[in-house]
Amino acid sequence: xxxxxxxxxxxxxxxxxxxxxxxxxxxxxxxxxxxxxxxxxxxxxxxxxxxxxxxxxxxxxxxxxxxxxxxxxxxxxxxxxxxxxxxxxxxxxxxxxxxxxxxxxxxxxxxxxxxxxxxxxxxxxxxxxxxxxxxxxxxxxxxxxxxxxxxxxxxxxxxxxxxxxxxxxxxxxxxxxxxxxxxxxxxxxxxxxxxxxxxxxxxxxxxxxxxxxxxxxxxxxxxxxxxxxxxxxxxxxxxxxxxxxxxxxxxxxxxxxxxxxxxxxxxxxxxxxxxxxxxxxxxxxxxxxxxxxxxxxxxxxxxxxxxxxxxxxxxxxxxxxxxxxxxxxxxxxxxxxxxxxxxxxxxxxxxxxxxxxxxxxxxxxxxxxxxxxxxxxxxxxxxxxxxxxxxxxxxxxxxxxxxxxxxxxxxxxxxxxxxxxxxxxxxxxxxxxxxxxxxxxxxxxxxxxxxxxxxxxxxxxxxxxxxxxxxxxxxxxxxxxxxxxxxxxxxxxxxxxxxxxxxxxxxxxxxxxxxxxxxxxxxxxxxxxxxxxxx
Length: 535
Fold this sequence. Notes:
Blueprint: E1 20-22, H1 25-37, H2 43-52, H3 58-62, H4 65-79, H5 99-119, E2 133-135, H6 137-142, E3 145-147, E4 157-161, H7 174-179, H8 189-200, H9 219-228, H10 230-243, H11 257-261, H12 270-275, E5 280-281, E6 284-285, H13 292-297, H14 300-315, H15 324-336, H16 341-349, H17 352-355, E7 356-359, H18 365-370, H19 379-390, E8 395-396, E9 399-400, H20 430-453, H21 478-490, H22 496-513, H23 515-528, H24 530-533
Antiparallel strand pairs: 1-7, 2-4, 3-4, 5-6, 8-9
């Protein structure tokens, strides 16, 4: 019953010139729900997509609370902020929290800020100009900030720094710069490179380097080379001046927690003393860090990069060089839409490259090579989808096992840790299959026990068509219930052979171990089906 199909067959009667054949409406709705909310569509939503079209669901999903929560995860994967280990540990600040909570609290600060701006449909330029941030109680214990509304019961709330740092959105968050830290002699260069890459799509590290002779190993020799060696100057002319705008975050002692996470306004011009380079933004002199956010917001590369990174995330691939016009069109959707991230998302969802489900015979080789007709659920999306479906979250000693690697399975499931692995693996591996098996077993057992003990109206997955879900293998109601579970999990109605196989599986297990074990086996099997963890 379980089959792996990574390239769907061509089923349309008419092949478009592009060679891209679209998904059906229910499959498109499933993809949209996963990408916008991180969860599967309900059976009712699938029916709505089939009758009124998947597009009719977009506005409701953009207003769904799951939208903001999923965007936090999606941006964290894009920006690679969720490293398992940071430069400092919790005990450096005298707080008694586990390492996972400490690391994720800092990692989620910048992405929570961006996701809140998108959810409230504020201009995306606020991501680099906002005078506020997002914080939880862990950050409030460590960082110099105050909640806007101390009585707000939400875990993450709007807060403002009190250490004199200027407005600058994510650029002025301690969470971002604790993840992308600097050594005392790197002088913020790594931070400047990260800023250029994630906000402007300028990859300074990709520029070619060719030394006639290596400049030396000492810090003095290397610092001299960046100002005299032509190959070094090619990168450092822009890198060092940009790094100079971030010296409010530069610590005198990089092992001192307070030094590292606080802002020091009096040090903003200190980079000139250390490097001899005046702070500037790609040739525009900067006299105060307060200028940095507006300079980024008004840079055409910022809106272009936002469009490019959003398209890449939703297309499941980077836009190709010959797709420049497509990205420009998306950039225009963003800028003419008042810099609304929701407007940009709608534009990307409307593209052929997003809606593609298969390839026609006339598709050009370049299109075949780059097109992703099927995506694999990212580790955080897998976690949220499984939790919404079954109520199970794989937590071990306070850590989410799908969102880390110290005890977890993030890289084994194809995710990125941000250090040794810097991009998601789009191709399933043996380790993915093994980890999925364990996750499926745990989640299947969890939901079977919970749903069989719950009243019909409180069940998540099992027993939605019957009052008593403890069905005998020969019960006439079993077939309808198996169809409902299959459709909820995989988004399609099983055919006769699939229904028979599920029935045989349930019967074989339930007859010897009971109905709860039978349902656990069914759910576990469907969770391992590639039709569940691909979309």
